[in-house]
Amino acid sequence: MPAKASRAAFGEALLDLGARDERIVTLDADLSKSTMTAKFGKTYPGRAFNVGIAESNMIGVAAGLALAGRIPFACSFACFLVGRFETIRVSVAYSQAPVKLVGTHVGVAIGEDGYSQMGLEDIACIRSLPNIPIVQPADELETKQAVAWAVEHPGPVYLRLTRQNLEPVHGDGYRFQFGRAEVLRPGTDVSVLATGGPLWNALEAARRLEADGIRAEVLNVATIKPLDEETILRSAGKTGRVVTVEDHSTAGGLGGAVAELLGEAMPTSLKRLGVAGFGESGDAKGLYAKHGLDEDGIARSIRKFLGR
Amino acid sequence: MANPDVGRLREIAREGRVQIIRMLTHAGSGHPGGSLSVIDILTVLFFHRMRYEPKQPTWEDRDRLVLSKGHCVPAQYACMAKAGFFPESLLPTLRKLGSPLQGHPDRVALPGIEAATGSLGQGLSMAVGMALGLKLGAKPSRVYCILGDGEIQEGQVWEAAMSAPKLGAPDHHVDNLCVILDYNGIQLDDHVKKILDLEPVTDKWKSFGWPVIEIDGHDVAQIDKALDQAEAVTGKPTFIVAHTVKGKGVSFMEDNPEWHGKAPTPAEAVRSIREILGLPAEGGTPPAWAAPILQELAAMEKK
After folding, report:
1. Is residue B57 within 8 Å of B84, Cβ to Cβ?
2. Which residues pair with A71 in a beta bridge?
3. Are the C-beta atoms of residues A285 and A294 closer than 8 Å to each other?
């Protein structure tokens, strides 16, 4: 499989699923070409609703549709979508409206558009709500299966998708399991918990560290909420050191979730890699290098963390 | 729809007002002013217009009510109890720990509530979505949404106002949606005109593409007639501006911002209820259903 953006895989998956289930509808706020629902709209014009540049209304309308028996996917850039937090909080979460919230263009990897377009705090916000699971798939195969899962899931969902292409990390036989973290590369010296865009970089970093005699165990944490406590604690118990890797703020994201888990269940040395402070314009590669989320940066941080 | 029994509806609304005062007095907090201004509208909806099954609150073909001005939910609880969604004995549990009668509507806690509201400005979007979803599902149901006047200062209301007359075109217009503005002229801090005047409110909604009907929101016959007119509109949702009086029915609460969000004391409650029932300050014979409520509140006064 060639590299593909998870937003693109989402658009394709929705097109397929839409043929099988006419309850599926999409909502967009003038970004359907970017969230990749535009094809769905062309194929099923009576089931795609573009509400204009009005994300709060989009989320509320999606809640009403969900409560009237439809399966709405409400889509926008993650920052604009989750920026309407109060509407998500009451109309979706507290109302228990099974809306599928889809936030695309996450992280500094969107590059040139700069900070105001980057979803960097969305996991932290959604994670604070009691009943919205968060899923961030790492490649095309996982994305398509996660979208199919979201359709079946009876409650609200938050899907976190990338603008940039993602190299495949899974073989054809892979089956996404909601709520499960997945050991992609076994190791004994350090547990590397990664999610979304930089997961591939974490795997590359682990390959390089192997040459230096450091055996890193790499886990794909696609379900950020609820966290797979069992798998994470088993790995952390084995290695005694944990590094988290994500294209999100270092506050409140995967790193925050893992810190909370380890702090309470099994205090373990922890290093959180992610974005501290605001993002900025630039090329995606340069930004990943700046924030230490490229292969070199992740490998360097792990060596330092292990004192080697 | 058949002509309403105006006398019966007025009696039910009177009883609703008594229950609102009773609930808030037990709770020791809450919003009497806006509950009393909206009760006549809710009475017509619950007891003459809406189709629902109180014992089967998720019946698919039911009409939906979204009380976007969620702080006035005591008025809805009074109607729901009277309609048989839950026993009237639950009413005094309003706002108490463990009660399904939450301070603001909670659709999970109380079956029959269609949407969690109370964070102002959100209910119209949800009602629009429900109306669209029902159209897509080829359901005959209607959706009613009640907005507060102060509430429409929220930006999301205007996002929804802009979208509703156009959404779903050409096959699924949300003409099954009727929005009612409880225009009582007062918000928490002061009179709406002094905080942020909404005028010209009718022109605003018309310019957004809504047919607008103006009525006296305490005249049950006018309310019912407007709902008839709304139901006859095709291709668009309808907006009803209901001119109301905040605190309607209790002289010392009427048109007084002080009574937006405070509960009466037991003595004030007895005084209010006697006024609502048309009894003199002392003596007179309350109707059989109201006598125990007056006794109950008088007993609270002595504590």
Report:
1. no
2. A24
3. yes
Q: Distance between CA atoms of A304 and A105, rounded to whole angstroms?
A: 31
Distance CA A288, CA A297 (A): 8
The yes-or-no answer on residue A55 being catalytic is: yes
Region of residue B98 (left: phi > 0; alpha: psi -120 to 50; beta: else): left
Q: What digits encode the pLDDT tens for the residues B69-92?
A: 999 999 999 999 999 999 999 999
pLDDT over 80 at B108, yes or no: yes
Structure tokens at A88: 């998500």
* Cα–Cα distance, A95 to B303 (Å, whole number): 39
| Pairwise CB contact (< 8 Å): B124 & A59 | no
CB contact under 8 A, A57 and B159: yes
Strand order of the β-sheet with B177-183 is B64-67, B143-148, B177-183, B238-243, B212-216
**Which among B39, B13, B21, B11 is positioned nearest to B294, based on CA atoms?**
B21
Q: Does B80 touch chain A (CB under 8 A)?
A: no
Its CATH architecture, for the domain A4-166, is 3-Layer(aba) Sandwich (3.40)
B38 and B180 Cβ atoms separated by less than 8 Å: no
- Number of residues that this document lists for chain B: 303
Quote the radius of gyration of chain B (alpha carbons, Å): 19
Which H/E stretch holds residue A75? strand A71-77
Q: Note whether B4 and B49 are within 8 A (CB).
A: no
Q: Which residues of chain A have pLDDT under 70?
A: none
Domain boundaries, chain B: 6-302
CA nearest to B4, candidates B284, B216, B227, B183: B227
Residue B301: the pLDDT is 84
Helical ranges in A77-198 per DSSP H = 78-82, 85-87, 122-127, 140-152
**Which residues partner with A272 through β-bridges?**
A244
pLDDT of A129 reads 98
How far CA B142 is from CA of A241, B9, B50, B237, B277, in Å, comes to 58, 21, 8, 10, 33
Q: Which residues of A touch B64 (CB under 8 A)?
A: 68
Residue-range domain boundaries for chain A? 4-166, 182-306
Report the C-alpha gap between B259 and B264 in whole angstroms: 9
Diameter over CA atoms, chain B: 63
Task: State the distance between the two ends of chain A, measured CA to CA, in whole angstroms.
Answer: 36
Predicted TM-score of the model (pTM): 0.97
Domain B6-302: give its CATH architecture. Answer: 3-Layer(aba) Sandwich (3.40)
| Intrachain domains A4-166 and A182-306 with the same fold | yes
Query: What pLDDT score was predicted for residue A305?
Result: 98
Is residue B208 within 8 Å of residue B165, measured between CB atoms? yes
User: What ipTM does this complex have?
Assistant: 0.97
- Chain B residues inside the 8 Å CB shell of A90: 116-119, 122
Going by C-alpha positions, the residue among A104, A138, A100 that lies closest to residue A36 is A104
As a whole number of angstroms, the distance between CA B20 and CA B30 comes to 10
Distance of CA A233 to the CA centre of its chain: 21
Tell me which residue in B122, B155, B160 faces A90 most closely, judged by beta carbons: B122
Read off the tokens for B163. 């979208």
Look at the domain A182-306 and name its fold. Answer: Rossmann fold (3.40.50)
The strand ranges marked E within chain B are: 64-67, 143-148, 177-183, 212-216, 238-243
CA distance A128 to A155: 16
